[in-house]
Design brief:
Blueprint: H1 4-46, H2 56-68, H3 87-100
Keywords: Coiled coil, Cytoplasm, DNA replication, DNA replication inhibitor, Metal-binding, Zinc
Protein name: DUF972 family protein
GO molecular function: metal ion binding
């Protein structure tokens, strides 16, 4: 049977490991948020409009245009080239149709 002191040390070690993992996850989340902001700015520049001037309805039209040009619009693969239909992209359009009814 472990002593109480040994159990506390082991718990501290595991907690430090979890804290390190949390720091790594926070850093990755920050990097992804920065990348997302850059991609939004590039997309707005691509369409020649400032980001704040794009109304929501026009944004959906632009997403449809991207999808029709062969790009993913789903969260997991956004902006990547599609080689065929994507269930996740299609699910997005299904939700949009249901929401607009």
């Amino acid at each position: 049977m472990q002593t109480l002191t040994a159990m506390i040390r082991e718990l501290e070690t595991r907690m430090q490991g979890l804290l390190n993992d949390l720091q790594k996850i926070k850093k990755q989340a920050r990097l992804l948020a920065e990348e997302n902001d850059k991609l939004r700015e590039e997309l707005a520049r691509f369409y020649g409009k400032p980001l704040e001037e794009n109304p929501a309805g026009e944004g959906l039209k632009e997403l449809r245009d991207l999808y029709n040009r062969g790009f993913h619009i789903c969260h997991g693969h956004f902006g990547r080239t599609r080689t065929g239909d994507c269930l996740f992209c299609e699910a997005f359009w299904s939700r949009e149709r249901e929401g607009s009814m």
